[in-house]
Design a protein that fits this description.
Elements: H1 2-8, E1 17-20, H2 30-40, E2 46-49, H3 52-55, H4 60-69, H5 81-87, E3 91-93, H6 98-102, H7 108-113, H8 121-130, H9 134-147, H10 156-171, H11 177-186, H12 188-203, E4 207-209, H13 215-223, H14 233-241, H15 247-250, H16 259-262, H17 265-273, H18 286-293, H19 303-316
Parallel strand pairs: 1-2, 3-4
Helix pairs in contact: 9-10, 11-13
């Protein structure tokens, strides 16, 4: 969209800045990046090969960021300093929010069931669940979370309390697509991430905007379709970007993972040597948390505590200042 707008207004083409992770095949997006850049016929392209040290949430960049800024959300922001420094000052457009805006929202099962044709039993059950009263949806979500293996490092009482809050938050999502996208704008996690990314970019004399999370964009997306939204991510991508992206990208189903790239050798060394300090043992089982950090594919949710525990160890040793988290 930025390219089409620039050309329409007679401006210079935007310059794509992409990151590649040669050491981590499950984080490789180079094929998709190349297809988009080639399709748009962009002459300039900044390609950054990210080393395991640069992507590690306790690599040199991240450690310096933690000492300077404290713990921030999301944890991966601490790894972006060298990227911003290498490309220099400028105005950037990011892609945060795509999963939230174009992914499964509460009204989608209803849209699928009403799309025409004979819905399956599964479609009808999902649609019924989406229109159930809020207390019932909250109870069902809580039960599903408690049955899952999510966040096993939390003590049982606290895990239940935490999941109760998560269930209440999810049950608050409105049924109509306009309301669901407006609700996304109010979620604390999204607002924190966007705000912290802006502050980080400002440290490098740059600005960054996340257009997919902009209220004007989400309102336009909501107006572009049925009251219950799109039937699938592919349908949404085709409707919104079908005239400017290659079909293979529109129909892409693979999901890239960065868990291994973010929890590299620096993080694993700390996890192996960690003495359990820096977390509240009334709330957290330190040994289960260590096991998560050392897992083949560590949970991204656990990495906030990874950085928090490391920073606490540095503060205890007098190697980092005490500061509030953001």
């Amino acid at each position: 969209m930025a390219t089409l707008l620039a050309r329409r207004e007679g401006l210079s083409d935007p310059v794509p800045v992409t990151q590649r992770y040669p050491a981590f095949p499950d984080s490789d997006e180079s094929t998709w990046q190349e297809q988009v850049v080639r399709h748009l016929e962009l002459a300039n392209w900044v390609r950054l090969d990210i080393t395991p040290e640069q992507s590690d949430l306790l690599g040199a960049d991240a450690r310096a960021g933690l000492r300077e800024r404290g713990v921030i959300w999301p944890p991966a922001l601490q790894t972006k300093g060298s990227v911003l420094a290498s490309v220099g000052a400028g105005s950037f457009l990011g892609g945060e929010g795509g999963d939230e805006v174009l992914g499964v929202r509460r009204p989608r099962p209803l849209r699928t069931a009403l799309a025409g044709g004979r819905p399956s039993v599964g479609d009808l059950r999902a649609a019924s669940a989406s229109v159930a009263p809020r207390p019932l949806r909250e109870r069902r979500t809580l039960a599903r979370l408690l049955r899952s293996d999510m966040q096993p490092w939390l003590r049982e009482d606290f895990r239940r309390q935490h999941f109760r809050l998560v269930a209440a938050d999810q049950a608050a999502e409105p049924l109509d697509f306009v309301g669901a996208l407006a609700w996304l704008q109010r979620r604390r996690g999204s607002a924190l991430a966007a705000g912290n990314f802006r502050r980080l970019a400002a440290e490098y004399a740059s600005t960054i905007t996340q257009p997919l999370l902009a209220p004007a964009f989400t309102a336009a997306v909501a107006r572009s379709t049925h009251r219950w939204g799109y039937r699938s991510r592919t349908e949404a991508m085709a409707a919104l970007f079908g005239d400017c992206l290659p079909r293979a990208v529109i129909e892409r189903r693979q999901k890239t993972m960065f868990n291994r790239a973010y929890v590299g050798e620096g993080s694993r060394t700390f996890a192996r040597e960690w003495d359990g300090s820096g977390v509240d043992h009334d709330l957290v089982d330190a040994e289960r948390l260590r096991q998560e950090w050392l897992a083949d594919v560590p949970s991204a949710i656990s990495t906030v505590m990874l950085q928090s525990a490391w920073l606490a160890s540095q503060q205890h040793a007098g190697l980092a200042p005490e500061r509030p988290d953001a």
